[in-house]
Recover the amino acids of this structure.
């Protein structure tokens, strides 16, 4: 078999594999969800004009959410390859597809770089890690504020408990910020570790980022956290949860904060999110079905629907092109 034929067949096999993974992920989410019928019923009885407006707003914010991520990634890649916003958005959708069935969503990095034409894809993955770090900082910062507020109001932490928690949160955030704003030294750091020394050249583009550029990327990450939080709150209101904006913001960011420390894959993440949501929302409301319905809907709107579009985009790509560089 000639080399072109081999690549063609391998590309076809990879696309089938990705499609199978996506179908399996969809099936598993339906199979694992014990109360799907109750969730559907909750959705139907809640679907009045007022509630439908919230639902439509949440769906439209999905484009804003991933659009912000696309702009952030596009900005990071500027010095390697100039992408249109459309191409960057397509890359984000491809990444979501591969993230659904990989541990800690590592497939997202490989999925994004499939769209690139000129940049070294391994270097692009390293650059993408900078964007991920900025999002972690935003989520940890706002999540810590939400969690500490929740702990004070509902868990009744005080004295040494609160002081220790605040000190730990501050140290964590400061440490992350120090690493982030000195990420240009990544190649130097890796050069000192024998195991990573061979990979340090892939981090070379990171050296070109200025403090201002990193601050702009971090700003996009904080904005994306705000959009995602508003989506969750909008779904809570769509399913008739009687909760105020500030209380909802506190609980939602508390849930996001705790999720950061639980390794998972998106395939089983919905079950984890559901259990966390019931626990933390349980201090505010007893409407458990609405909690699960909001969590389930958020997962599908923000991950599964974009992943299906992402698969369609991947099916039109040469997934092997560019990896030799």
């Amino acid at each position: 078999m000639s080399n072109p034929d081999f690549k063609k067949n391998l590309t076809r096999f990879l696309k089938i594999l990705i499609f199978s993974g996506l179908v399996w992920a969809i099936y598993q989410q339906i199979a694992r969800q014990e109360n799907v019928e109750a969730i559907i019923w909750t959705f139907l009885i809640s679907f009045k004009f007022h509630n439908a407006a919230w639902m439509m707003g949440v769906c439209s914010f999905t484009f804003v959410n991933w659009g912000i991520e696309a702009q952030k990634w596009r900005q990071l890649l500027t010095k390697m390859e100039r992408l249109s916003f459309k191409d960057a958005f397509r890359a984000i959708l491809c990444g979501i597809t591969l993230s659904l069935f990989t541990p800690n969503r590592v497939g997202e990095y490989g999925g994004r770089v499939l769209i690139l034409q000129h940049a070294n894809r391994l270097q692009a993955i390293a650059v993408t890690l900078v964007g991920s770090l900025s999002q972690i900082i935003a989520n940890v910062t706002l999540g810590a504020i939400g969690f500490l507020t929740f702990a004070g109001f509902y868990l009744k932490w005080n004295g040494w408990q609160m002081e220790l928690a605040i000190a730990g949160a501050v140290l964590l955030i400061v440490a992350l910020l120090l690493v982030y704003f000195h990420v240009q030294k990544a190649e130097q750091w890796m050069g000192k570790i024998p195991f990573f020394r061979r990979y340090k050249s892939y981090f070379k583009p990171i050296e070109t980022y200025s403090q201002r550029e990193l601050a702009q990327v971090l700003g996009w990450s904080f904005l994306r956290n705000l959009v995602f939080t508003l989506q969750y709150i909008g779904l809570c209101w769509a399913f008739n949860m009687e909760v105020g904006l500030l209380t909802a913001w506190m609980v939602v960011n508390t849930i996001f904060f705790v999720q950061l420390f639980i390794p998972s894959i998106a395939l089983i993440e919905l079950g984890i999110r559901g259990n966390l949501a019931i626990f933390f929302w349980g201090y505010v409301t007893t409407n458990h079905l609405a909690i699960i319905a909001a969590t389930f809907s958020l997962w599908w709107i923000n991950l599964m629907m974009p992943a299906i579009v992402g698969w369609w985009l991947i099916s039109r790509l040469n997934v092997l092109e560019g990896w030799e560089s």
User: Anything to note?
Assistant: The longest helix spans residues 121-153.
